[in-house]
Amino acid sequence: MTIQDIRSKIDSIDEQVLKLLNQRARLALEIGHLKAVDGRVPFVPAREIQLLERLQSLNKGPLPPTAVRAVYREIISACRNLERPISIAYWGPPATQTHLAAIQQFGESADYEPVRTIADVFNAVETSRQDFGVVPVENSTAGSVQDTLDHFSDTSLTICAEVLLPVHFALLTTEESLAEIKRIYSIPIAVEQCRGWLADHLPNVEIIDAAPTSRAAQLASEEPNAAAIAGRLAAEIYQLNILYDRIEDSAHNTTRFLVIGHHSPDPSGRDKTSIMFAAPHRPGGLNAVLNCLQAHNINLTMINSRPTRRMPWEYLFYVDVQGHSQDPGLKEALDAMRSRCDFLRILGSYPESA
């Protein structure tokens, strides 16, 4: 066949694909009408993950799994938007890692609102100005985002989903060489992820806090002899040179983000549950609480402590475990923990990101 013959076949297939996509969209509209009657939200993370995993298992190529996932993420996003448009608050401005994580979860069809701080994300969702919020919670190199953890002690919002985003940083500037850089703007957690590279290449340069990373890029675009540690997308938006790319110290650098909202997802079969609790302030108090997980064969994946901000030397503990709070084994473990805690709150059960 000639190239033109092959292109004609592609055109014919595209027409069929378009018809099938619109059939799918009409079915999504029907689901939206039924959900509206019951007052249910259009975002169902367990269903979306099961759908994507099923399609990836059926895929025989040559499309790679990442391409299948990317295509269907946008199909799901567009059909979800037909059910009912949803709005997302994220820690902005545009081009932050949080913005990219939000798009990875909700696709391009959702409505996005950048807000100034993590506290503003929580507030936008608490007041129902936005349906959901996206916030960073921990990085594989730099550890937990304490500001996010602290806000869970003052909110009734629920964790609805998690997003794992591989994070790569670049040195962005209007200058042409490292010798011209006198100061670097970035958020402390990003600086920490690039600590080794900075020590090797720019050990004496002043580092100035600027949050989030896209704000750092904006500042670097406005000042001579300045640079920013930020993502590649920020270079496009603020017209900066990428002087060095992938300056993070770990090749597997990943940040975990949480989707917060008012609704708890149903079990998906592979879930994670986040818990906040206060252990008795006595010898062995924390150990007695955590032993409840071991006794019921529950795997703990993260633990962090934060001051209560109410009494000196009293702490709240944040724990992630595998399983859904409705699972019998985890439910029994949580009941046992409550009997040994001063208080315990389930922050959310949600599908575990692969």
Can you give a write-up of this model?
By secondary structure, this protein is of the alpha/beta class. It has four domains: 3-83, Chorismate mutase (Chorismate Mutase Domain, subunit A, Up-down Bundle), CATH 1.20.59.10; 87-167 and 254-261, D-Maltodextrin-Binding Protein, domain 2, CATH 3.40.190; 170-244, Periplasmic binding protein-like II (D-Maltodextrin-Binding Protein, domain 2); 271-351, ACT domain (Alpha-Beta Plaits), CATH 3.30.70.260. The protein has twelve helices and 15 strands. Strands 1, 2, 3, 4, 5 and 11 form a six-stranded mixed β-sheet that branches. The protein has a five-stranded mixed β-sheet with strand order 8-7-9-6-10. Strands 13-14-12-15 form a four-stranded antiparallel β-sheet. The radius of gyration is 23 Å and the shape is globular. The two termini are 42 Å apart.
Write the layout of secondary structure elements.
Elements: H1 3-38, H2 45-58, H3 65-83, E1 87-91, H4 97-106, E2 111-115, H5 118-126, E3 132-139, E4 143-144, H6 146-151, E5 158-166, E6 170-173, E7 183-186, H7 188-193, H8 195-201, E8 206-209, H9 213-222, E9 226-230, H10 232-238, E10 241-244, E11 254-261, E12 271-278, H11 285-295, E13 300-307, E14 315-322, H12 328-338, E15 343-351
Helix pairs in contact: 1-3, 2-3, 11-12
Summarize this structure as a short list of keywords or feature phrases.
single chain; 354 residues; alpha/beta; Chorismate Mutase Domain, subunit A; D-Maltodextrin-Binding Protein, domain 2; 4 domains; 12 helices; 15 strands; 26% strand
Précis, in short:
The protein folds into 4 domains: 3-83, Chorismate mutase (Chorismate Mutase Domain, subunit A); 87-167 and 254-261, D-Maltodextrin-Binding Protein, domain 2; 170-244, Periplasmic binding protein-like II (D-Maltodextrin-Binding Protein, domain 2), CATH 3.40.190.10; 271-351, ACT domain (Alpha-Beta Plaits). Helix content is 41%, strand content 26%. The protein is an alpha/beta fold and 354 residues long.
